[in-house]
Design goal:
Structural class: alpha+beta
CATH architecture: 2-Layer Sandwich
Strand order of the largest sheet: 1-2-3-5-4
Oligomer: single chain
CATH class: Alpha Beta
CATH topology: Heat Shock Protein 90
Mean pLDDT: 88
Low-confidence stretches: none
Number of strands: 5
Shape: globular
Radius of gyration: 15 Å
Strand content: 25-35%
CATH superfamily: Histidine kinase-like ATPase, C-terminal domain
Length: 137
């Protein structure tokens, strides 16, 4: 099963890089259309949350995409393991605070895990299209 992991400095200017890398990886795996859009938007939201809320100086954000049976799993990890994500109701006029709600709408499931030195926020997407074999697309 294909898996890819990449790391980014904890800075907002690297969020577009994460988005581009996710989109390119999905295309390389033969995954396009609505699924690719949903995963890319979710990655954008989770990476933005990580760079915004992680309080560890000079942290690096880890992004992993993996195919696990009928699912594609997106994981975004950062070393601030005590600051766990919380979905919240945002005021309709608020400019932020909707990221996890959006991920919840786009993914089949999402959640978080605490690891020994990091927290991981994950989103799982059911794959309805048949991906091409890695490297043959």
């Amino acid at each position: 099963m294909p898996t890819t992991t990449f790391h980014l400095p904890k800075h907002r200017r690297h969020v577009p890089t994460a988005r581009q890398h996710v989109r390119r990886t999905l295309a390389d795996w033969g995954l396009t259309g609505e699924l690719a859009d949903n995963v890319t938007v979710s990655a954008n939201e989770l990476v933005t949350n990580a760079v915004t809320h992680c309080r560890v100086a000079f942290a690096r954000i880890e992004v992993t995409l993996s195919m696990r049976g009928p699912d594609l799993v997106l994981e975004v990890s950062d070393p601030d393991r005590q600051r766990l994500p919380q979905a919240r109701d945002s005021d309709p006029d608020a400019e932020d605070g909707r990221g996890l709600a959006l991920v919840g709408r786009l993914a089949d499931a999402w959640g978080h895990t605490q690891r020994p030195y990091a927290k991981c926020v994950w989103a799982r997407f059911g794959i309805t299209e048949k991906p091409c074999a890695e490297g043959s697309g």
